[in-house]
Amino acid sequence: xxxFAANLTMMFTEHPFLDRFDAAAKAGFSAVEFLFPYxxxxxxxxxxxxxxxxxxxxxxxxxxxxxxxxxxxxARPDKFAELRQSxxxxxxxxxxxxxxxxxxxxxxxxxxxxxxxAAFRTSVEWTANFFGDQGIDVVLEPINSRDVPxxxxxxxxxxxxxxxxxxxxxxxxxxxxxxxxxLHGDVTMRLREMxxxxxxxxxxxxxxxxxxxxxxxxxxxFAELDRLGYDNYVGCxxxxxxxxxxxxxxxxxxAGVKV
Length: 259
Known about the structure:
Blueprint lengths: L2 E5 L11 H8 L4 E3 L8 H10 L3 E6 L19 H18 L3 E3 L10 H19 L4 E4 L15 H11 L4 E6 H7 L3 H8 L3 E6 L14 H11 L4 E4 L23
Parallel strand pairs: 1-2, 1-8, 2-3, 3-4, 4-5, 5-6, 6-7, 7-8
Helix pairs in contact: 2-3
């Protein structure tokens, strides 16, 4: 049975961020993820995790000025110094939360530009080596161009092939089913093909990015993950259509699973 992590950036937004940990635990989640923790002290987040017996399964490395349109540095040849600074900035949060998986964002760049590709490979290798001795994995997520125009990593096969070619043990694919359906479709076959490289999975409905449903048969996909032997967490990176708890009917069979 899949284990689900509530995404606290998108879910339980009826509450201030730190109170979302309490709300997620009360709703039956045993794990959480979020985009960025950096507006809060590491100790505050660690306290909420501990008080609610929650596991932190993922967050993103700092992306730069998000409000100004920056979406990471990894594919930006001129931003390698900023990337290294961002990794060091994340360290206190890594230690405080005990997280073992981090998302490295590629940024806005042309995937067909050899310099951007070379910069991305260099950034991935450096970041993975930095965290490798700490037992931490780095995951790379393809993002659809409808949501983030110009994002460098916008193709699942390209990402899979790059990860396979680099052969870095602690680098994996962040497989967001929502992005995959928009970019390529044929989600089930891509899960089957790419499972050896997948380090984390996320979900949302298509096209609304609300609770699981609409185009995709999520109960089938959850059962497929069991059949495939996927044993990491599934992040619920969706925007509830209304009040978060009111939309958790899909989650009822899985609430409280900690295996």
